[in-house]
């Protein structure tokens, strides 16, 4: 005669229905984590382990789940892991450049299972201009990555040659401002100064932003389009003022993740910095 304990064990090992199994798989991957095959199998009764992998692969083939296989290890995700990395990694660099190991550590805290995909993703992200390698300082051997191109790294050779030339130019008495004017003209760039305190553009910009913030007390981040419409400034004056306030730490700018998906007109309505980053939202910091 079976004991109550054995009857309970037998009931627990009954296979799940197809509907229950699919629901269990979807729920296991709904939190953003990427699970390996063995980890996914632990989310269902042992009797369903093999069937769980089969069903998970079917869902991936239908585009309902996502699967990445590297060597003998396969990982399953509830959302496209590349798109998730595109969304999650850049904000990690807002506070400064990080190495791949540092990015992986922070990433695993919020999106467990995505870390192993990082090396391959970094290659693509660099090629797409989603992030940029930074110059190494202090004899550092580890690469670091940032959100903006590092001009010191990209222009290193040019700067070396320029410094050599400056020795001769200084000896000939050529003033530095004249050199700057020449380089600006050669590069087709303007040396127009950013708006300073007290300028009309700055006052108009801040007044429009404060009024819009007062009308939207629940929304800390304000759409650039609405602020631009209220300020009524020429596009370049508006953008220069926003970027100047951001550099001064008085304005927080939020970048657009995929500006390439926007039309030219939609991109033109955003704030664009010299590096090509488009900003879609803004908010005054407390001291502004």
Topology summary:
Layout: H1 4-12, H2 18-28, E1 35-36, H3 37-41, H4 49-61, E2 66-70, E3 73-77, H5 81-92, E4 98-99, H6 100-110, H7 118-128, E5 132-133, E6 144-146, H8 151-154, H9 156-171, H10 176-187, H11 200-215, E7 222-223, H12 224-231, H13 235-247, E8 251-255, H14 264-268, E9 271-272, E10 278-284
Antiparallel strand pairs: 1-3, 2-3, 4-6, 5-6, 7-10, 8-10, 9-10
Structural class: alpha+beta
The largest pleated sheet is described as: 4 strands, antiparallel
Strand content: 5-15%
What is the oligomer described by this structure?
A: single chain
Question: Tally the helices: what do you get?
Answer: 14
**Proportion of residues in helical segments:** 40-55%
> What would the principal axes of the Cα set say about the shape?
flat
In the CATH hierarchy, the architecture of the largest domain is Orthogonal Bundle
CATH topology of the largest domain: Arc Repressor Mutant, subunit A
CATH class of the largest domain: Mainly Alpha
Q: Work out the number of β strands.
A: 10
As for the number of domains, it is 4
Describe the fold and architecture.
The longest helix has 16 residues, at 156-171. A hairpin with a 5-residue loop joins strand 9 and strand 10. Strands 7, 8, 9 and 10 form a four-stranded antiparallel β-sheet that branches. Strands 1-3-2 form a three-stranded antiparallel β-sheet. It is of the alpha+beta class and 288 residues long. The protein has helices at 4-12, 18-28, 37-41, 49-61, 81-92, 100-110, 118-128, 151-154, 156-171, 176-187, 200-215, 224-231, 235-247, 264-268; strands at residues 35-36, 66-70, 73-77, 98-99, 132-133, 144-146, 222-223, 251-255, 271-272, 278-284. It contains 14 helices and ten strands.
């Amino acid at each position: 005669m079976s004991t109550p304990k054995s009857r309970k064990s037998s009931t627990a090992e009954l296979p799940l229905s197809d509907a229950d199994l699919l629901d269990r798989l979807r729920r296991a991957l709904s939190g953003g984590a990427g699970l390996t095959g063995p980890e996914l199998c632990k989310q269902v009764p042992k009797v369903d382990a093999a069937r769980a992998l089969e069903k998970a692969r079917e869902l991936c083939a239908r585009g309902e789940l996502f699967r990445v296989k590297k060597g003998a290890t396969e990982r399953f995700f509830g959302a496209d892991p590349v798109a998730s990395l595109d969304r999650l990694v850049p904000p990690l660099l807002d506070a400064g450049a990080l190495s791949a190991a540092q990015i992986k550590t922070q990433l695993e805290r919020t999106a467990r299972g995505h870390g192993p995909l990082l090396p391959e993703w970094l290659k693509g992200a660099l090629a797409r201009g989603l992030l940029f390698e930074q110059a190494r300082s202090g004899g550092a051997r580890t690469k670091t990555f940032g959100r903006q191109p590092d001009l010191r790294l990209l222009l290193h050779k040019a700067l070396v040659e320029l410094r050599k030339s400056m020795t001769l130019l200084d000896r000939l008495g050529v003033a530095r401002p004249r050199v700057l004017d020449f380089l600006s003209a050669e590069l087709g760039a303007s040396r127009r100064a950013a708006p300073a305190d007290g300028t009309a553009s700055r006052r108009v910009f801040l007044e429009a932003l404060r009024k819009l913030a007062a009308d939207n007390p629940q929304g800390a981040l304000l759409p650039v389009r609405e602020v631009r419409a209220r300020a009524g400034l020429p596009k370049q004056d508006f953008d220069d003022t926003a970027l100047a306030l951001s550099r001064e730490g008085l304005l927080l700018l939020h970048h657009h993740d995929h500006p390439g998906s926007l039309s030219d007109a939609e991109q033109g309505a955003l704030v664009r910095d010299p590096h090509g980053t488009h900003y879609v939202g803004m908010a005054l910091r407390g001291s502004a």
